[in-house]
Amino acid sequence: MLTRMSARDDTALVTLHFDRVPGVLGRIVHERAADYAAAEPALGATRARTHRFETALRQPGLSLIAEVKRASPSQGAIAPLDPLDAARAYEAGGARAISVLTEPRHFDGTAQALRDVAGGVAVPALRKDFVVHPAMLREAAEWGASAALLMVSVLHEATAEYLHMAHHLGLDALVEVHDERELDIALEAGAPIIGVNNRDLTTLHIDLAVSPRLIRRARDAGFGGVLVAESGYRTPQDLASVRDLADAVLVGSSLAGSGDLTRAARDLMRA
Ligand SMILES: O=C(O)c1ccccc1NCC(=O)[C@H](O)[C@H](O)COP(=O)(O)O
């Protein structure tokens, strides 16, 4: 599918080629593109950037971004979490930011979950969704998020354009990559925050060697921004390979399904 969108006045024409996105991820982005096909692309007035998300992740030591994740394609149902209760529990456990899934079909996410979390905890909230339309960024800002996820595997060459749109709206962006080619696109786009996903979103296979490999490559290329290792972390031992390399880790399933979110967050991050 080819989608052309013109965000009036404040953004350039953006073209996304979803046919290039295979597997599970391909199915999800086709659904999200259909959800937003008739949405208004204009962003509205520029909002000041607070850099709240970036600042939270730049604190000394490995920062935890804890995810409110009730379900996923790889796990099915994880836990029937109340998003705000879960976010407060994560915050009490030391999380420096909360990731909130807003995708409804596969992750049981909602807009209200993001609104509740963004308004109910002191730490910044990330909108975790499959951004395929400018309106999704406008919503993220309106719902109180400090940041939004941008996936290079979905946006390809449009990554820089979407990064610009996020910044226009006052949002930080977590620009996610999974391989060398995607990392090069993120670096070229000038992303200040890059996340390396250990999960191949087309096959759902997790390889914890991906994050240290790409984080080293980013640093070797002179990248001075924030680097986040994402997915598949269950124990403090799992974190050993990124503890002295990454600025932050993004963890969902193992915390969300633990039954005691505060304790699980504390125990995971214990050095
Ligand atoms: O988690 C999935 O099964 C999944 C499937 C398809 C697209 C995205 C998916 N997850 C998004 C994420 O990358 C994770 O929610 C996040 O990094 C946390 O991962 P984890 O700690 O392994 O739950």
Can you walk through the features of this model?
Pathway: Amino-acid biosynthesis; L-tryptophan biosynthesis; L-tryptophan from chorismate: step 4/5. This is indole-3-glycerol-phosphate synthase. It catalyses: 1-(2-carboxyphenylamino)-1-deoxy-D-ribulose 5-phosphate + H(+) = (1S,2R)-1-C-(indol-3-yl)glycerol 3-phosphate + CO2 + H2O. It comes from Deinococcus grandis. The chain has about 270 residues and is an alpha/beta fold. Helices cover about 35% and strands about 20% of the residues. The protein has 12 helices and 12 strands. It has helices spanning about 25-35, 50-55, 85-90, 105, 110-120, 135-140, 150-155, 160-170, 180-190, 210-220, 255, 260-270, and strands spanning about 1-5, 15, 65-70, 70, 75, 95-100, 125-130, 145-150, 170-175, 195, 225-230, 250. The strands form 3 sheets. Strands 3-6-7-8-9-10-11-12 form an 8-stranded parallel beta barrel, surrounded by 6 helices. Strands 1-2 form a two-stranded antiparallel sheet. Helix 3 runs parallel beside helix 5. The site of ligand LARABZUK has 20 residues, from helix 1, strand 12 and helix 11. Ligand LARABZUK binds near residues 72, 74, 197 and 201.
| Physical arrangement of strands within the biggest beta sheet | 3-6-7-8-9-10-11-12
Tally of helical runs = 12
Give helix % range. Answer: 25-40%
In the predicted model, the low-confidence regions spanning at least 5 consecutive residues are 1-13
pLDDT average, as an integer?
94
CATH superfamily: Aldolase class I
- Give the second-level CATH assignment, the architecture: Alpha-Beta Barrel
Output the radius of gyration.
17 Å
- How much of the sequence lies in strands comes to 15-25%
Q: Please name the CATH topology.
A: TIM Barrel
Number of strands: 12
Order of helices and strands: EEHHEEEHEHHEHEHHEHEHEEHH
Characterize the biggest β-sheet.
8 strands, parallel, barrel
Shape: globular
Distance between the termini: 46 Å
Domain Indole-3-glycerol phosphate synthase: 46-268
EC number: 4.1.1.48
Keywords: Amino-acid biosynthesis, Aromatic amino acid biosynthesis, Decarboxylase, Lyase, Tryptophan biosynthesis
Pathway: Amino-acid biosynthesis; L-tryptophan biosynthesis; L-tryptophan from chorismate: step 4/5
